[in-house]
Amino acid sequence: MKAMAQRSWNPAEKLELVELPTPEPKKGEVRAQVQAIGVNPVDWKMRTSGPLRLAARLLGPKPPVVVGVDFAGVVEAVGPGVTRTAPGERVVGGTNFSRGQRGSYADTVVVREDQLCVVPDAVDIAVAAALPVSGVTAQLAVVDLGGIRRVQPGQRRVLVLGASGGVGQLAVQIAKLEGAFVAGVCSTKNVEMVKGLGADLVLDYNEGDVLAQAKPHAPFHVVVDCVGSYSGAGCRGLLSPRGRHIMVAGDEPSAVVQMLMPPFKSKTILGRPTGARLEPLVAAAAAGKLHVAIAQKLPLTRAEEAHELSRTSRMTGKLILEP
């Protein structure tokens, strides 16, 4: 199998194309041929610093280091005891370094069957590959951790900061599916896109302080910060008494500080995809209720370029790598 990998954990090392042994699936495992890979900030954060990198070094396989989580493709082979999928089926899932698995930046992955969801023909394989981390994170932010269902339908209000990005675009749509009034924040060039996602109100950060712009429309039951640069105190000031301020992938020290600030309404989140969590997202995509804007598709060999684009935090939609 071929993969884009670092030879060691040296953060200065570049990803390069390497040849690795193609593993045979063991009991409960599935080997899939990868056709599309979703790029997430966690992919490059694991290469640089912070708790994600430390955990990957301690729990993941030895170098070469293959990063990446999201993937979609076709099942090649299954191990003993696998019953939920079979060779030839289209699947989507996420790798898990805590299970000793290599990342998804490869033409082949091996994962356990509970990490996979079957992809109907109605869903484009690139769209499927964009769902694992971003979709699960958005669902957890709005519904599970955000607790939007604690609020009566018709009274639900959600503010999404970074509404045109990979997580933001899905958070807007999931909130609308939950019957919420949704305010989305983006740049001038993405206003129409965010309106197209179903946002009831679009705030342009080029026109000034968006938290101040959002104030007349408060209180919000969930404020989802997909950017990470907004004032925690400012976000909490827009919340209802039982509201939640959710910071996406907030693994920086500043995010931890925000979680410790009274009235303890700030939470940090990064969704770990599983088959069970992906099933409703894939079903919604198949039914035309959930759409994914693909920002750009690049060959897997241009993974370094994809990471540089991701670091800008100015992407509209999802970056996809293709082996």
Write out key terms for the chains shown.
27% strand, 28% helix, 323 residues, alpha/beta, Rossmann fold, Quinone Oxidoreductase, Chain A, domain 1, 6-stranded parallel β-sheet, 7-stranded mixed β-sheet, 15 strands
Task: Explain what this protein looks like in three dimensions.
Helix 1 packs across helix 2 (51-59). The strands form 3 sheets. Strands 3, 4, 5, 6, 7, 14 and 15 form a 7-stranded mixed beta sheet that branches. A 6-stranded parallel beta sheet has the order 10-9-8-11-12-13. It has 323 residues and is α/β, with parallel strands linked by helices. Helices cover 28% and strands 27% of the residues. It folds into 2 domains: 2-131 and 273-322, Medium-chain alcohol dehydrogenases, catalytic domain (Quinone Oxidoreductase, Chain A, domain 1, Alpha-Beta Complex); 134-269, NAD(P)-binding Rossmann-like Domain (Rossmann fold).
